[in-house]
Amino acid sequence: RSGVRTRTRDRDFKYLAEQAKTLGQLGFERVFNEVANTREEIQKTAEMEKQVAEQTTQMLYAQQQAQLEQFQELVADKQAVLQQGESKSIMAIKKSQLDRKLSESQAAIKTAEVQEKTAKQNLRLTQEQKRTIEQMYRDGTISAEEFTKRMRDLKTEELRGEQNLVEQKLANREYRDWE
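Predicted structure:
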């Protein structure tokens, strides 16, 4: 694109220079003014192209941020549902224990089972987030920098989730062994 423009400009300047030879001093001044005007137009065009590029970059960044915010909202909603489900289940277990329908050890086992289930679901959610971020990167929705940052954070969260799951499984087994 710019190569074509440069060649066109070169031809324009050569043409103007030829015209200046044939027109004499008055023609030279007119050609000189036309060249100066052409250079100003070239500078204005370059500035406008730069502004358009900057605006495009800003627009793409804003779109990326909007999509990431929407994604984060969806993840937060899913996490809230998991947490609320766990809380409701544990409250039901505690109520059964309070009503003497469950012994302390039975309540501990059921609570550990609920927590283990929630740990598995949280781990799956983190893995789903990783897949979504990878897809967003492949689709060009997010930048390489954003992808790297998000994946680093999600890998850390995934490791914490795996650790939590193992701890919940151990707690569940310990409660069962006590019974």
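Summary: The chain has a mean pLDDT of 87.
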